[in-house]
Amino acid sequence: MAQITLNALAHTYSPDPAGPKDYAIRQMSHVWQQGGAYALLGPSGCGKSTLLNIISGLLEPSDGEVIFDDRIVNALPPEERNIAQVFQFPVIYDTMTVFDNLAFPLRNIKTPEAQIKGKVEEVADILDLTPLLSRKAKNLTADEKQKVSMGRGLVRDDVSAILFDEPLTVIDPQLKWKLRRKLKEIHQRFNITMIYVTHDQLEASTFADKIAVMYEGQVVQFGTPRELFETPAHTFVGYFIGSPGMNFLEVTLTPQGLAFGTLPIPVAPALLEAARHSGSSNIKLGIRPEFIEVSEAPGDETLAVEVEDVQDLGTYAILSFRIGSAAFKARLDEGVSPQGPRAHVRLPAEATHLYIDEYRVEVTQ
Amino acid sequence: MNSSTDTLTSSDRQAERRTDPEAAEAVVPTRVERRTRGGSRGRSRLLLGLYLLFILLPIYWLLNMSFQTNTEILGTLSFWPQELTFENYANIFTDPTWYMGYVNSIGYVLMNMLISILVALPAAYAFSRYRFIGDKHLFFWLLTNLMAPPAVFLLPYFQLYYSVGLFDTHVAVALAHCLFNIPLAVWILEGFMSSVPKEVDETAYIDGYSFPAFFVKIFVPMIRSGIGVTLFFLFMFSWVELLLARTLTATNAQPIASIMTRTSTASGIDWGTLAAAGVLTIIPGIVVVYFVRNHIAKGFALGRT
Amino acid sequence: MNKVQSNKAWFLVLPMLLLVAFSAIIPLMTVVNYSVQDVFDPNTRFFTGTEWFVAMLNDPALQGALLRQFAFSFTILAIQIPLGIGIALLMPKQGWRASLVLILVTLPLLIPWNVVGSIWQIFTRGDIGLMGWGLRELGYGYNITRNPLDAWATIILMDVWHWTPLIALLCYSGLRSIPEAYYQAARIDRASRWAVFRYIQLPKLTNVLVIGVLLRFMHSFMIYAEPFVLTGGGPGSSTTFLSQSLAIMAIAQFDVGPSAAFSLIYFLIILLVCWVFYTAIMNLQKDKS
């Protein structure tokens, strides 16, 4: 049981890094609270597996510190960190039975055999592995194998955290759901810190209480699934979370306010002030397709747009349209189906976010 | 990155910053030192070094003697040549009966490699892709040929090649070595070919390739490294074999290995020349292994059991 | 892989079959033919039936060679298999060091077999060889032409030098096929070095080791050139193995009939041992799963 703190952590695989581009993990600090269920979400190559391996001790970070409670464990190898890790492809010891597989970590620390039996049976029961205990691990199905490798993490009493590295990649879709629920159950029962690496936002949000979204070696936002959806702190989060992702409009600062091309875009004065103050020319407005209000007739604060396409996805439909040259998508409410080449959209101010240098600007109103 | 951190004002970032100093102030983390693992890395390097020394010492001694005169060899035991001489090598390179031995050896080895790979490629493809009457028995029979001691075939080979007029030719040795090299090539290649998915073949046929065109233009390039490794093994086993090569040749196609026996004469053994000739037989092997060094590890898996 | 049923595949196998048949079947038929006849000269021969086989099986010289052959093969297997595994575990996995070690380790395999004999002949001579000289300097009266024990030890050392690399390379390739995650999981499970070897590495080596044992047994059973050059089969006949006995009988004495019968017995022994070993291993694996 431990709180895991990453302090000014950075990692590079290159011996003489020239700039931030050479870093797999750019300098970051982060705290994983004891007992939390976390997901580390990001596209492949964003550094999430590297980060996981640094926490488990398979990799030693080039800079910064990994702190378990109050111990800096940088120099500790994984075997001394009391960590369990479940890998993308199930790792099982082929020649052993399921029982021996589960008992393996306990036998390695010379636990009395009587104690092992009780512990293994308890874990097998939780994971529904009891009928398989005497089988050779070699002949199990992929999901059973993955459960065995999870079980090896659970049998030890002293585990401070369980790390999952895309554990459901090789599992059939209908079993994925079952295993994910099992994981949640285990989390609630044992109160162990769990960190779950995935590139699947659905997997992340069903498993985790809080999600860390990683992009180019940095955690760009750490929050609940709801926060990631409603207030993406970084344009990447907006784009990556949600389906389809957030719409962005690149705007410029004019003496009158913000404008897209020649089209003035009204925003709250405080946001405008923040944009002026930043001195940056990289200014974007973002709004999720779900929050765009589409109507067939013009109304208050609406923009007339060109409809490109309506895609019916069964339970709802996605409208593609253009504001000037920028492509937008909006989710249509039931009953609304704009006919003809034009539609009228409203971008509600409370759902519109301002991004300067890709990060969201927050103003207290 | 730092500049963007300064400007961002997201609530999460602020929260992070708030927790950080607190955590640092509340408890000062203690650094846990690494426990050294008994220098196991150093020990394994030492053991490997000792083994390499064991491998290299006899070869070094051969090299050492090849640069000495016979007087020095027989006179004193010197750990390195006191009077460096190239005379032994000069002997070999100026005497056609000597250097032709290398030409002969390389000649039949190359010939054998070519024959073996050409007939083994289609055969291995058949074994890896098709079921046909007697396939399993045929494969097993092939492997039994790997187990046949060359000594068993000495006399019949001698008579066979003599009667067809191939005695003392390169072809005779190249064909004789097919006995073990073709089965070996089929075995290794079959393993490599079976790891190429069958869909590759099917896609090619759908794209309108004929079998020969597909085989040469698509399939062979795909198992390039497997062919390289196979050629390495073919070279190896043909190059090192002596018994058959010696029995099937007299003067025209005599391999270097059997010419080396000439160094022992009534007046004693010409150690220097023997050593130099030995050194020269090692060099082709080094050249070949250098070319396939990145593939040997894979190739030694030798297909599957 | 699902193979397609097609007897046309025979056409692909045919060239290979013809060549191997030419190299294997015709000579083998000749041997069988000789083994049941007594040949005086090309025109005078008698059918002898199994007479030569009986004679050969009762020949004390050949029985001796056969025993020595088994003793030799088992000794070198007992040394080379564990040693080869050990070397493979020590070999670096990447970088220029890996290439260099790989090349050096492969080196003995690519030296012509009689040159291997010559190298060791030179190396072990008491007057001019480093090892022979060194052992004498240390006070041991090392002499491979007089002392059968020395001759045996030297031949075994030579074979270990010559062939351990094959086992090492086989195991090395087997080890390289183990995904990194296995080692990582083992570290996290706090497996000891021994447990990693026993439960991760050794299971992956089973296949290559079966091949390794078969190849080594076969080759050691056919050994000819190396002891021929090093000891000439002596002192006495203490290092005369089967191939050399056969070569003397067939070529030097030209005893066509007996040597043919001997050849067949020799070949059958190898086939039998390989078959027994292979089926035993396969049954063992079947039982496990």
From TrEMBL, chain A:
Q: Looking at the Swiss-Prot or TrEMBL record, what is one Pfam family this protein matches?
A: ABC_tran
- Tell me the Gene3D superfamilies matching this sequence: 2.40.50.100, Nucleic acid-binding proteins (2.40.50.140), P-loop containing nucleotide triphosphate hydrolases (3.40.50.300)
GO MF term set: ABC-type ferric iron transporter activity; ATP binding; ATP hydrolysis activity
- Cited PROSITE patterns: ABC_TRANSPORTER_2 (PS50893)
GO cellular component labels: ATP-binding cassette (ABC) transporter complex, substrate-binding subunit-containing
Q: Which domain of life is it from?
A: Bacteria
Q: Which UniProt keywords apply?
A: ATP-binding, Cell membrane, Membrane, Nucleotide-binding, Transport
In what residue span(s) does the ABC transporter domain sit? 4-241
Under PANTHER family, the record lists: ABC TRANSPORTER ATP-BINDING PROTEIN, MALTODEXTRIN IMPORT ATP-BINDING PROTEIN MSMX
Protein name, entry field: ABC transporter ATP-binding protein
TrEMBL record, chain B:
Whose protein is this, by species? Bisbaumannia pacifica
Q: Which residues form the ABC transmembrane type-1 domain?
A: 102-292
Q: Which residues cross the membrane?
A: 44-63, 106-127, 139-158, 170-193, 214-240, 271-292
The alphabetized UniProt keywords are: Cell membrane, Membrane, Transmembrane, Transmembrane helix, Transport
Instruction: List the Gene3D superfamilies.
Output: MetI-like
Q: What is this protein called?
A: Carbohydrate ABC transporter permease
Superkingdom of origin organism = Bacteria
Pfam families found in the cross-reference section? BPD_transp_1
Polar residues biased stretches = 1-12
Topology class, membrane: Multi-pass membrane protein
From TrEMBL, chain C:
TM helices/strands, residue ranges: 12-36, 70-91, 98-123, 151-175, 196-218, 264-284
- Main location (coarse class): membrane
**Entry-linked PROSITE patterns:** ABC_TM1
Instruction: Check the record and name the InterPro entries matching this protein.
Output: MetI-like, MetI-like_sf, Sugar_ABC_transporter
**Membrane-topology descriptor:** Multi-pass membrane protein
Name the keywords, alphabetized.
Answer: Membrane, Transmembrane, Transmembrane helix, Transport
Q: Name one GO biological process term.
A: transmembrane transport
Which CDD domains does the UniProt record give? Answer: TM_PBP2
Report the subcellular localization: Cell membrane
Gene3D superfamilies cross-referenced by the UniProt entry: MetI-like (1.10.3720.10)
For this record, the Gene Ontology CC terms, alphabetical, are:
plasma membrane
Which residues does the UniProt record annotate as the domain ABC transmembrane type-1? Answer: 66-277
Q: Does this UniProt record's set of keywords contain Transmembrane helix?
A: yes
Pfam families according to UniProt: BPD_transp_1
Q: Which SUPFAM superfamilies match?
A: MetI-like (SSF161098)
Family that this chain belongs to: Belongs to the binding-protein-dependent transport system permease family.
What name does UniProt use for this protein?
ABC transporter permease
Its source organism is Bisbaumannia pacifica
